[in-house]
Amino acid sequence: MIHIGQVNTLKVTKQADFGYFLDAEDYGSVLLPNKFVLEGVNIGDDVDVMLYFDSDNQLCATTEKPLAQVGEWSMMHVVGVNNVGAFVDWGIDKKDLLVPFSNQRVPLTEGQNILVYVYSDSASGRIVGTTKFNKLLDKTPANFEVNQQVELLIAERTDLGFKAIINETHWGVIFKSDVFGKLFVGKRLKGYIKAIREDGRINLSLQKVGVAKMDDLSEKVMHVLETKGGFLPLSDKSTPEAIFTVFRTSKGTFKKTIGGLYKQGKIRIEQDGIYLA
């Protein structure tokens, strides 16, 4: 089945001076221009191509990979604005993606870098983008558990911290007090469910919460020490950035963890770092 706005595998059926024709099933033949033909392609070969409609509503094929296919999010650069909406660089030659005014959460201006969701408009059949994510996400209660690991996409900075899309289905919030490391809109990372509130809203954490957080980090510290010959140049005096680089955790959690390991007699804490006892 052919999927417009996504990468499809099509068979080469004919060669012409200006390119190759591919079998697009119910859509007929589609031309892959010479400038997009990969070396060594022959009639009968299968090629992976992105399919889209141009401004004349003609089906086009390219071996270029878009920043996001239909059904995906990506950061994109606004290259222009006219009377129908904003156009963003989609990663396809001579084919910018339209974000109509009706799909803009706030008015877009040329030069911005924004997070865009790509979809196929059911009314027009055109591939367009949107920054209105609320209508895309599930409004039903989430079936998550506290400390469950999830995939996060940072979607918005707010006064409270950051809003993130959880497993591409629900909204969640990372409060400022739970932020460490560098977060920015468009970043993808793993996180954890911190709490599900009575109103159904979800609080997120970048590390496990409670005792599970400490136990998890204790295992990581011991493992890294064992693989590094029993020494790490990190201690409770190290910078938050240095600790985050190695363990992806906050300095506060790291200090509590090595303090616990020290009390258990598993490590020594010296001025230059920590040692296996």
TrEMBL record:
<dbReference type="Pfam" id="PF13509">
    <property type="entry name" value="S1_2"/>
</dbReference>
<dbReference type="InterPro" id="IPR040764">
    <property type="entry name" value="CvfB_WH"/>
</dbReference>
<dbReference type="InterPro" id="IPR003029">
    <property type="entry name" value="S1_domain"/>
</dbReference>
<feature type="domain" description="S1 motif">
    <location>
        <begin position="69"/>
        <end position="132"/>
    </location>
</feature>
<feature type="domain" description="S1 motif">
    <location>
        <begin position="3"/>
        <end position="64"/>
    </location>
</feature>
<dbReference type="Pfam" id="PF17783">
    <property type="entry name" value="WHD_CvfB"/>
</dbReference>
<dbReference type="InterPro" id="IPR012340">
    <property type="entry name" value="NA-bd_OB-fold"/>
</dbReference>
<dbReference type="InterPro" id="IPR014464">
    <property type="entry name" value="CvfB_fam"/>
</dbReference>
<protein>
    <submittedName>
        <fullName>GntR family transcriptional regulator</fullName>
    </submittedName>
</protein>
<comment type="similarity">
    <text>Belongs to the CvfB family.</text>
</comment>
<feature type="domain" description="S1 motif">
    <location>
        <begin position="145"/>
        <end position="207"/>
    </location>
</feature>
<dbReference type="InterPro" id="IPR036388">
    <property type="entry name" value="WH-like_DNA-bd_sf"/>
</dbReference>
<dbReference type="InterPro" id="IPR039566">
    <property type="entry name" value="CvfB_S1_st"/>
</dbReference>
<dbReference type="GO" id="GO:0003676">
    <property type="term" value="F:nucleic acid binding"/>
</dbReference>
